[in-house]
C-alpha cells in the first residue's frame, strides 16, 4: 500500500538519493579536513594505476562469463560482444543509477534479443550469490588463521566468515524448495531456491561458476594488494585479501549507485581493524572505485553502441 501517497519503489528512490547526497557530502568533508588524502591519490605511479584499471577490466570480463554461463543454461548462446558488452554496460549504469539500474538494462536486452525470462534468469543470479558468499566465507576463514596470534579482532572475522559459510551451507541442503511467506526476505530466498533447483544437478555448470568465483576473488584480492602498495601502505597480503573479501558484501546494498558509501565504509572499517587505518582504507576504496569508473566508462559507451546496433538490426 502506498505510504503518504508514495509507493515502495518511489520511497526506495528517495532513500537512494538521500543516501547518495549524504555519502557525497561526507566524502567531501572528509577530504577537505584531510588534504593529505588528495595528495596521496595524485601521487600514485602511472604503472600501478594502469594495472588497477586492467584488473578491473578482467573482473568485468569475469562478470560477462558468469552471464554467458547462465544464458547457456537456457540454451541462449551469447556472442563475445554480448556477454562482455552487457557486463561493461551494466557496470557503467550501476555506477550512475541507484537500485542497480544496470541490471534492468541488461534484463531488457536479454528479453528483447533472446526472449530470456527475467524472473528465471534473476533466480539463477540470486542462487549464484550463495555460491559466491560460500566461497568468500571459506576463503575468509583460511586467511583469518594467520591473524589469530596477532590481531585481537580475528575472532570477529572468524565469526563473520563462519556465519556466512554455515548459512550458505544450510541453503544448499535445504529440504524444501519454497518458503511459504510473502516477506521480502523470503521472496528473495524463494527466488534463490528456484535458481538452485535449476542448477544443483548440473555439475558442469556449478564447477564453472565455482572456478569463475575463485578467479574473481583472486583478481579482487590482487586489486586491493596493488592499491595498498600504490599508496605506499605496508599491509600483509592476507590482510589485503581479507579487506577485499569483506568489500564484496557491499553488493547486497544497492540503494546508491555502485553501493557508493557502503563499500567505502566496509573497506575503511575493516582496514582499521586490520591495522592499516581508516583513512588508508578510504583511499584504497576510492582508488579502486576510480579504476572501475575508468574501465566502465571507457568500454561501456563503446559496447552500448554495438549492442544498440544489434537491437536496431533485429528490429528492421
Describe the structure.
The chain is mainly alpha-helical. It has helices at 8-33, 35-42, 46-73, 80-96, 101-114, 118-144, 154-173, 184-199, 203-230, 237-247, 262-273, 278-315. It has twelve helices and no strands. The radius of gyration is 20 Å and the shape is globular.
Notable traits:
mainly alpha; 78% helix
Task: Summarize the topology.
Layout: H1 8-33, H2 35-42, H3 46-73, H4 80-96, H5 101-114, H6 118-144, H7 154-173, H8 184-199, H9 203-230, H10 237-247, H11 262-273, H12 278-315
How is this structure best summarized?
With 316 residues, this protein is an all-alpha fold. The chain contains twelve helices and no strands.
Distance between the termini: 42 Å
User: What's the count of strands?
Assistant: 0
SSE string:
HHHHHHHHHHHH
The helical percent reads: over 70%
Structural class: mainly alpha
- Shape label: globular
Count of DSSP H/I helices: 12
Radius of gyration: 20 Å
Beta content: under 5%
* Unreliable residue runs: none
Mean pLDDT: 81
Largest sheet: none
Amino acid at each position: 500500500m502506498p505510504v503518504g501517497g508514495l509507493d515502495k519503489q518511489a520511497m526506495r528512490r528517495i532513500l537512494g538519493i538521500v543516501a547518495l547526497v549524504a555519502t557525497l557530502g561526507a566524502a567531501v568533508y572528509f577530504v577537505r579536513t584531510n588534504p593529505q588524502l588528495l595528495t596521496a591519490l595524485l601521487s600514485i605511479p602511472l604503472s600501478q594505476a594502469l594495472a588497477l584499471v586492467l584488473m578491473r577490466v578482467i573482473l568485468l570480463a569475469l562478470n560477462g562469463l558468469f552471464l554467458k554461463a547462465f544464458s547457456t543454461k537456457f540454451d541462449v548462446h551469447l556472442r563475445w560482444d554480448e556477454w562482455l558488452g552487457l557486463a561493461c554496460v551494466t557496470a557503467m549504469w550501476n555506477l550512475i543509477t541507484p537500485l542497480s539500474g544496470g541490471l534492468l538494462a541488461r534484463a531488457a536486452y536479454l528479453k528483447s534479443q533472446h526472449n530470456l525470462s527475467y524472473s528465471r534468469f534473476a533466480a539463477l543470479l540470486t542462487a549464484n550469490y550463495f555460491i559466491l558468499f560460500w566461497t568468500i566465507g571459506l576463503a575468509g576463514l583460511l586467511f583469518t588463521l594467520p591473524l589469530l596470534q596477532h590481531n585481537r579482532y580475528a575472532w570477529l572475522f572468524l565469526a563473520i566468515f563462519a556465519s556466512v559459510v554455515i548459512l550458505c551451507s544450510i541453503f544448499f541442503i535445504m529440504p524444501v524448495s519454497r518458503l511459504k511467506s510473502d516477506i521480502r526476505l523470503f521472496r528473495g530466498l524463494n527466488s534463490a531456491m528456484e535458481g538452485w533447483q535449476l542448477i544443483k544437478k548440473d555439475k558442469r555448470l556449478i564447477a564453472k561458476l565455482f572456478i569463475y568465483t575463485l578467479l574473481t576473488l583472486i583478481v579482487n584480492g590482487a586489486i586491493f594488494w596493488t592499491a595498498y602498495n600504490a599508496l605506499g601502505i605496508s599491509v600483509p597480503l592476507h590482510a589485503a585479501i581479507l579487506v577485499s573479501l569483506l568489500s564484496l558484501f557491499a553488493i547486497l546494498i544497492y540503494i546508491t549507485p555502485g553501493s557508493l558509501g557502503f563499500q567505502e565504509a566496509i573497506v575503511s572499517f575493516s582496514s582499521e581493524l586490520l591495522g592499516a587505518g581508516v583513512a588508508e582504507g578510504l583511499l584504497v576504496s576510492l582508488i579502486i572505485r576510480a579504476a572501475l569508473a575508468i574501465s566502465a566508462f571507457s568500454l561501456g559507451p563503446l559496447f552500448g553502441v554495438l549492442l544498440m546496433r544489434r537491437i536496431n538490426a533485429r528490429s528492421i
